[in-house]
Amino acid sequence: MQEGKLVAKSPRGTPYRHPVNRALFDEAPLGARLADKVTGFMGSWPFIIVQTIIVAIWLAANIYLLSNRNSSSPAPKSRSNT
Description:
Elements: H1 3-6, E1 8-9, E2 15-16, H2 19-26, H3 30-42, H4 45-67
Antiparallel strand pairs: 1-2
């Protein structure tokens, strides 16, 4: 038998091989379908690349802002009980 004949597709295009899987995919609640979409995106290369760029920009901004602080400002005075 050919592999292509064993694998059917659900209406959403998800492949399944067994009737139990058909019910699992076709009748999944909204929360499960949403979780599948989110985890499918978060593990993708576009997400990893965009996340890396965002973290690099955040890191560069912090380094720039910390290195350009006014170093001539006095330190805050501490309060003493004396």
